[in-house]
Amino acid sequence: MNQHQPRILYIDDDEGLRRLVARVLSRKGYAVTTAADGDEGLALTAGGGFDLVAVDHYMPGRDGLSTLEALRGLPDCPPVVYVTGSEESRIAVAALKSGAQDYVVKAVGDDFCDLLAQSFAQVLEASALRRARDKAQDDLRASNARLEALLHEVNHRVANNLQMVMAFVSMQARSVESDAAREALQRAHQRIGTIAQVNRRLYTSNDVEFVAIDDYLAALAQDMGEAWTTQRARRVHVVADPLRLRTDLAVTIGLVANELVGNACKYAYPADGEGDVWLSLRLMPGEDPSAGMRLELTVEDTGQGMPDDGSVRGTGLGTRLIGALTRSRGAELGYEPMRPGAALPGTRARLSMAIAPGDWSDEEFVI
Question: Is the pTM of this model over 0.70?
Answer without folding.
Answer: no
